[in-house]
Design brief:
Blueprint lengths: L2 H14 L25 H8 L5 E4 L6 H10 L4 E3 L7 H9 L9 H7 L11 E3 L16 E6 L2 H11 L11 H9 L9 H19 L5 E5 L5 H7 L6 H5 L21 H13 L14 H12 L8
Parallel strand pairs: 1-3, 1-4, 2-3, 4-5
Helix pairs in contact: 1-2, 6-8, 8-11
C-alpha cells in the first residue's frame, strides 16, 4: 500500500473509531490501539491528514496558468494545472487533497504542453483560476498565493473569440456553470464583451479580497522577472521555457476587439481603472474608430434587412 493508501486507511480508522460509531471487527486495530475520539475532533483530524499545498497560482484563466504550472515544476516545485481545483467545486478539491480522488493535470494542459507533470513527484502546488473563490478557506491558511494577470483585452479576446465564452446568459457547460455560480451577474442580459469585462474585473477583485492577509505575489505573465524566483527561492535553468512568451495560440489570425468595442461605458471605466493599476494602460473611451462589434453586428443586420444596430 502506498503513502496515499495508508493515509486513507488511517483516516478511515480514526473516523470509524470515533465516539458514538460502533467499532467494526478488528479493523480498528490495524494501526494498534486507538483512544476513544470525540466527533468534534474530526475536522481537525481530517485537516491534519490532508495534503498541504504550498502554493496556489490563480488568475482569470486565459492568463498563463498553464505556463506558470510548467514554470514552477521546472523550478523543482511540482505544480499541477487544475489538478486540485476543478469545475466540480470545493468538495472535489477536498477529495483530491485527502486522497479520495486522484490528482491529475487537466486535459488542456496535456494538449498544450504535454505531460510535463508525470515525473514531477508529489504535487505541492496547483495552478487554477477555479481556486480563486476558496483562497480564504482554512485548508489553505498557510498556502502562498501567486496572482497572475494578463492584459485584459488579451484575456477578453481569448475568452470571447478564442473559446466562444460568455455568449449566453445560461451556462453552456461545467466551466461556465462554475464561473456563473460565483459571478451571478453574468446571467443578466449582457453583450458577450460586457460579460467578459465584468468577469475579468470581478474575478481579479475576488482574488485580491480572498488572498488578503496571506503571503501573496502579484505578477504580469508577459513580464515575469527574477522577482518571482526570489519569492519562490528557486531558479529555473530551462532557457526555452523562460523565453516562452506565447501564452496560447487560439487567437492566431483572428481579429481582436479593443477597449472601445465593449458596449458598457461603466464597465469600460472599471476595466480601464483596474488595468492601469495592474500596469496595463488603456486608452480613454472617446475613440472615433467605429467599434468592431458594431461593424460586424451592423453588417449582419444589413444583410438580413434588420437595419443598423442601435445598442
Amino acid at each position: 500500500m502506498g503513502l496515499a493508501g495508508h493515509r486513507r486507511a488511517w483516516a478511515s480508522t480514526l473516523i470509524i473509531c470515533a465516539k458514538g460509531v460502533p467499532k467494526p471487527t478488528a479493523s480498528c486495530d490495524l494501526y494498534g490501539p486507538i483512544a476513544e475520539l470525540d466527533l468534534d475532533d474530526l475536522p481537525f483530524l481530517e485537516s491534519a491528514l490532508m495534503k498541504k499545498l504550498q502554493y496556489i497560482v490563480t488568475g482569470t484563466g486565459r492568463c498563463g496558468t498553464v505556463y506558470l504550472a510548467n514554470l514552477l515544476t521546472a523550478c523543482g516545485l511540482p505544480c499541477g494545472h487544475e489538478s486540485v481545483f476543478t469545475p466540480w467545486g470545493f468538495e472535489e478539491a477536498l477529495a483530491r487533497l485527502d486522497g479520495r480522488s486522484a490528482i491529475q493535470v487537466s486535459a488542456i494542459s496535456l494538449a498544450s504542453c504535454g505531460d510535463w507533470f508525470r515525473e514531477a513527484g508529489e504535487v505541492i502546488a496547483d495552478s487554477s483560476y477555479m481556486a480563486a473563490p476558496f483562497l480564504d478557506h482554512p485548508i489553505l491558511q498557510d498556502t502562498r498565493v501567486i496572482h497572475v494577470v494578463r492584459h485584459p483585452m488579451d484575456v477578453i479576446n481569448s475568452f470571447v473569440i478564442g473559446l466562444n465564452y460568455f455568449q449566453e446568459w445560461l451556462p453552456a457547460d461545467v466551466w461556465h456553470q462554475f464561473i456563473y455560480t460565483h459571478v451571478p451577474e453574468l446571467r443578466l442580459d449582457y453583450h458577450p464583451l460586457d460579460r467578459a469585462a465584468l468577469y475579468y474585473i470581478h474575478w481579479n477583485r475576488t482574488i485580491e479580497t480572498r488572498a488578503a492577509g496571506k503571503p501573496y505575489f502579484f505578477c504580469q505573465v508577459e513580464t515575469i522577472t527574477h522577482d518571482l524566483f526570489d519569492y519562490l527561492n528557486r531558479r529555473c535553468e530551462d532557457e526555452k521555457l523562460l523565453n516562452a512568451r506565447k501564452i496560447n495560440s487560439r487567437m492566431d489570425g483572428k481579429p481582436e476587439y479593443l477597449l472601445e468595442d465593449i458596449p458598457s461605458a461603466a464597465l469600460r471605466r472599471e476595466l480601464r481603472d483596474l488595468a492601469e493599476r495592474y500596469g496595463y494602460p488603456l486608452p480613454g473611451g472617446g475613440s472615433s474608430r467605429r467599434q468592431l462589434w458594431r461593424r460586424m453586428w451592423g453588417g449582419w443586420r444589413g444583410k438580413t434587412g434588420a437595419g443598423e444596430a442601435t445598442r
